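Quick bug: Permease output formatted oddly.
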Amino acid sequence: MNIGFITAAADRRLLDERRGTRAMMWIMAIMLFLTALAAALGLATLAATTLLDRQLVGRLTVQIVEPSAPARAAQTTAALAALRSAPGVRDAVEVDRDRLAALLRPWLGADGADPDLPIPAMIDVDLASGSAASVAAVSAAVTRAAPSARVDRHESWMSPVSSFMRLVTWLTAGLVALIAGATAAVVILAARASLETHRETIEVMHMLGSTDMQIARLFQRRIALDTLLGGAVGTVLAVVVTAAMGARLATLGSDLLDGLSLGQRDWALLAMLPFAFALLATVAARYAVLGALRKIL
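Here's what came back:
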């Protein structure tokens, strides 16, 4: 199938279409602006979800909930020794009490720093493997050394967040697909309207020996060029908005929001959107025009 995006000057004169009077290009600019924004959100959410999953796999928190301070300290020491000697444990570090007090300050106020307050001791654990068997083995070793220990997987805490982010990714993918379908429908309507406008010219072309395929190429090239130019404008505007939002998110200092960023591959995919939509418009215009020509001529 011969697909061209550039319309010759003679073809433009033949179709009698001036750039300033065509709304197609601006419709495509709006379509591509919305598509690029949705795609950027989906790609950023996918990157954040992947980063979150990678960070949480194999991460554990061990709490020593013994109320007696001497017994809590002894069990913490025993748990640290058991963790550091257990196979599959890359690192085990006790969380500083001052840091725990700072984390509790929004709820307990200054009382969080009271040394008499029985705050559980906490140990951050990093495993080489996040498999269920590895977690079970480490948990068993910790509970043997410290009977009051509780082992929590970070993955279980954040699984609702991860699931929601995956849902957002799928929703944005569906939105991009819907906009692509709407774009194809707009192209078909525009092609049929333009075909009806130029019915007399097309009849003359047929009498001069032009084939349906040659006539279809005139329309598909014009529509493809409008889509490419309008899509480029819309995509550039969407990229500017996306970059501005990314810079704004970077100033918030949130580890989770920092993951909402686009890599080089993501920017390349956004840059390819105008070409993909131009190809979609070309194919839709060709089949719309050929189908209409078979019915009316």
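Actually, after a second look the formatting is fine. The chain has ten helices and four strands. Closing.
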